[in-house]
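User: Can you write out an input/output pair for a complex, sequences first and structure second?

Assistant: Here is one pair. Inputs:
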Amino acid sequence: LYGLETERFGRNIHYYESLGSTQKAAHQLAHDGAPEGTLVIAEEQTSGRGRLGREWHSLSGKGIWMSLIVKPDLPPQKAPQFTLISAVAVARAVEEITGITPEIKWPNDVLIRGKKVVGILTELQAESDKISSLIIGIGMNANHGQEDFPEHVAHTATSLFIEKGEKISRAALIQCFLKYFERYYSIYISDGFKPIRLLWESYAISIGKRIRATTVSGVITGRAIGITDEGVLKIEDDEGIIHHIYSADIQQT
Ligand code: BTN
């Protein structure tokens, strides 16, 4: 990537015309000892995957489909924080490249005008109580036209092109993301999660609003009151009980 402004991230890039999933390839590379900062990018994915086992539609040439290998010296419980660090870096990069301030929906969606432009999937390789690698998968709808989205997401997805009205440079956006990721990651390592939490909350849409969280163990309705310094969502229900949500689908009610 010409003009890269990072020290470590994106210095080692594996680029493919077509892959099943950059996530899968990055898992293999990490397992085989690829260094921190290694980035896998594909022009097209034939079996891109999203959160909760969903399929991720990854059209050729229009989007940014990439997976970043990160190797923090931390316990596995810290892994979810990296989804939030990544979301803040993506939001900040989208803002810088397009001039549009996006919103973050906990834990991993980046939206513009309520529609999804970016999805993030953080996966973990751990040995006992230590992270060996985190694979951060990022899918950005960059230059899609409305007709490029499959029927079932047409009403909930958008692209930077649709929102801005002009094509964006994918290389510039990737570089900008890496710059912010490296910056926020080093802030996180030196000062902890709190500064990231504050940044995250400045982009968050649901905080203070009534939401419905669908979790594996049931549905919780109440007011989203923030995230903890672990990156866990807190919801206060109508009885005043505070629930800690580790994984869920969120809807505003
Ligand atoms: C989600 O919102 O459910 C997360 C979507 C993550 C998609 C990206 S695209 C690059 C990487 N490779 C994959 O197969 N998935 C992630």
